[in-house]
Amino acid sequence: SLGFLMSPLPSQLEGLCSFLQLSTCPEHLLVRFCSWLLILSPELSYTSAATLAQQLFLRRVLSLTQPPSRHLMAALTSFCSKYSQPFCRVLVAAVLQEAGEGAEQTKLVCELVEECLEPDSVRLVLSQVLEVPLSEKLLPIVQAVLGRQVRAPLCPHEVLPPELFDLLVLTLCRQAPAFSTSLSYARLVMAVLTTYHSQVS
Q1: pLDDT at residue 19, rounded to an integer
Q2: Which tens digit of pLDDT belongs to each residue from 148-187?
Q3: 90 in any annotated domain
Q4: Of 73 and 19, more confident
Q5: Which of 87, 120, 149, 183 lies at a 20 to 30 A Cα distance from 113?
C-alpha cells in the first residue's frame, strides 16, 4: 500500500525492493518506477527515500564502466528532482569511499551537480567531498561545484555560505603539497581565485 511506503522500517522496504528485484530490474522499468515515485502523496520520508536510493541505484552506479544509459540517467534525474538530499547522502558518499579511479562515477556526480541538483544539494556534495582527503578523482567534482558559482551573480541562492567557502580554501591550502605537479589542482585553484577574487587574498 502507499501508506506502507511512507514510513516502513528500512528492513521492510529493503525486503520489498528485494522481492520486486528493483536493484536489477531493466532500466526502462526503473524510469517508470521513479516517475511513479514523483506522484506519491504524501512524499516519501527521508529514510525511505535513502533506502530506495540505495536499492535502486547504488549497485548500478558503482558498477559503471562506461557512461550511464539514457534510461539510467533519466531515472537518476527523476529521483534527484524530488529526493536529492537522501540521494546525495547515499550515492555520493559511496562514490567518495570507493577505491580506485572511479572515472565514470566521478563524471556522473559532476553531471548531476552541473545539471540536476538544487543549490542546497550542491552544497551538500561539496561538504561531503571536503570531509575526505582530496584526490585527483575528486577534483572534477569540486570544479563542477565552482562552475555553478560562476552563475551565482544571476542566481544569488547558488552562492556558497562563508563557512563552506572557508573550509574549501583551507582544504586547498592544506593539501597543496600533495598536488604540486597536478594540472587539475592548478586549474581548480585558478577557478577559486577567479570566482572569489574579492574574498581571497
Answers
A1: 73
A2: 876 655 465 667 888 999 999 999 999 999 998 999 999 9
A3: yes
A4: 73
A5: 183
Dist. CA 106–CA 78, nearest whole Å: 19
Domain count, the chain: 2
End residue of a domain, out of 72, 99, 126: 99
Instruction: Give 174: exposed, middle or buried? Use CB within 10 Å, 0-12, 13-18, 19+.
Output: exposed
Residue type, 39: I
Give the residue among 149, 65, 49 at the shortest CA–CA distance from 107: 65
- Look up the pTM and report it: 0.84
* C-alpha dihedral sign at 153, 156, 162, 168: negative
Report residue 60: phi and psi, to 5°: -65, -45
Q: Sign of the C-alpha dihedral, residues 107, 124, 7, 1?
A: negative
Between helix 27-38 and helix 70-87 the angle, nearest 10°, is 40
* 15, pLDDT greater than 70: yes
Distance CA 141, CA 98 (A): 15
Shared domain for 20 and 95, answered yes or no, is: yes
Structural domain span for residue 79 = 8-99
Q: Would residue 108 count as lying in a domain? A: no
Residues 92 and 12 in one domain: yes
**Is the bond preceding 42 in cis, omega lying within 30 degrees of 0?**
yes
